[in-house]
Amino acid sequence: MSDQESNVAQLLSLSRAARLVGVSRGALQKKIKNGELPTFEGMVKPEDLVRAYPDTQLEDNTALERFSRIKDEAFNLRVRERLLPEPEVLVERLAGLGRELAQTKALVERYKTVTEWLYDKFSEFEKSGGREIMGVMGPLKLWLRHELEKETPSDYLQSYLVKDSFLRLMTAHIRLLPGRREFFVEGSDTILDAALRAGISLPYRCSNGICGLCKAKVVSGKTLPVRHSDYSFSEVEKNQGYVLLCSHTAVSDLEIEAAVIGGAQDIPEQQIAARVKKIERLGENMALLHLQTPRTKRLQFLAGQSVLLETGNGAEAELPVASCPCDDRNLQFHIQRFSDNRLSDYVFRKLKNGDIVTLTGPKGEFALHEDSTHSQIYLAYDTGFAPIKSLIENAMARDVADTMHLYWVAGKEGHYLNNLCRAWTDALDNFQYTPVVAETAEATQVLEQIQADHADLSGYDIYVAGPASCLTVVKEFLRNINFPENQLVMTRVE
């Protein structure tokens, strides 16, 4: 291993460093921006990470447990067992760590030999020189001996390195090129599933090894097929290292050339016959509709988008998806009961588990600013919480926002998922929730409260969902305080 390779091997990506200390990538980026954490080509040294987070307790798994709890509970992802990687994957990763350990030991022995040789040369030079040479060599020898006998690394740094080795054994770190987005593959997840859970939108359709839309070129690292695939690669693609992301898992850390969904225009319209999994009553006039798509035909969409729902009686309505794209089979919709709405009436009176609901979409461009690292403010009016919830869960999965603050304006009985919002507050250090009762606050009063809570709104992206009348007030208020228009995203939900 060359000195340059050794230095690179000791550096941590921001995603891996964030996991080790249990903070978001956004929090690390804030420290980097403030000059509290040095970086080298977008990576950090373990010892610099220790200095930036000296009080982090690495002996427990609190941070990783918190990530798991958020992803499994607050995100409303399906309950799933966290499996170990496949035996072949574990063997390969252990072998890789063993090779790296052997190379590191050899490098340490080399450094030890060189430093001992230097010490002997200093001694010879000291004896052959005069008083002036002795005055220089003596302190230099003492410093060198002191450094060689110093106990390194520190306990904290050793804890980081041990935890990093365990993380590399249980997970694989993926970097997408050319955009350099990062995520982890855990257990026996496919690369595609892991990307979706991390809030990264990649092209796919069948997710079953047939259509080939999720093919990507592996630039470095090793993969392993975990699902059967019927797609046929050309000889050129085989030689270039192309794989199907829906059928392969990562054996080692990977660099992959893959297209990333750039916006709503990159997602084709789909029509899917989904089955009712559960209808959960959230109040007298509010229900949470859980739909599940077939395994081989999942809905690809961006957080915040809507779909057209059609029930068995021919009634249809366009509704926002109220769940995260990171679980694209299990979809949620907030159904409010209206006497003159055929679809909502059918859901409350006749729809039952196992029935078919046809989905057509996705529609709309209400989505996160993918490349923004701004903090985020969410403003939901009544059932406008549905698309806002999808955005929040996706932002949590992406783990890049420094802070998130949700304001939910509704009637006294209108905060129908109040406990979920409070659970987010409990689980995340960077999340705040402010429920606002509509009867006691005019639209401008809510905006004045937001302005009072956040001294400089220019550092935020603001996402708003609600009736047209509320959107008009919000837009006018923010324009009057010179809020950047490109940092405001709104969608109409009546």
Q: CATH first level of the largest domain: which class?
A: Alpha Beta
Ends distance: 62 Å
The secondary structure category is alpha/beta
| Count of the domains | 5
CATH level 3 topology of the largest domain: Rossmann fold
- Per DSSP, the total helix count is 15
Indicate the percent of residues in helices.
Answer: 25-40%
The percent range for strand residues is: 15-25%
Instruction: Look at the structure and give the mean pLDDT.
Output: 85
Number of strands: 20
- Neighbour order of strands in the largest sheet: 13-12-15-10-11-14
Largest sheet: 6 strands, antiparallel
Q: Which regions are unreliable across 5 or more consecutive residues at pLDDT < 50? A: 1-9, 57-82
CATH superfamily of the largest domain: Nucleotide-binding domain of ferredoxin-NADP reductase (FNR) module
Which helices and strands, and how do they pair?
Blueprint: H1 3-9, E1 12-13, H2 14-21, H3 25-33, E2 43-44, H4 46-52, H5 62-74, H6 87-128, H7 131-149, H8 155-170, E3 171-177, E4 182-186, H9 191-197, E5 215-220, E6 223-225, H10 235-240, E7 242-244, E8 248-250, E9 254-257, E10 270-283, E11 286-292, E12 306-310, E13 316-320, E14 330-336, H11 342-349, E15 356-363, E16 375-381, H12 385-398, E17 404-410, H13 418-427, E18 431-437, H14 443-453, E19 460-466, H15 468-480, E20 488-492
Parallel strand pairs: 3-9, 16-17, 16-19, 17-18, 19-20
Antiparallel strand pairs: 1-2, 3-4, 5-7, 5-9, 6-8, 10-11, 10-15, 11-14, 12-13, 12-15
Helix pairs in contact: 2-3, 5-13, 6-7, 6-8
Key descriptive features of the protein:
494 residues; Ubiquitin-like (UB roll); 5-stranded mixed sheet; 15 helices; 20 strands
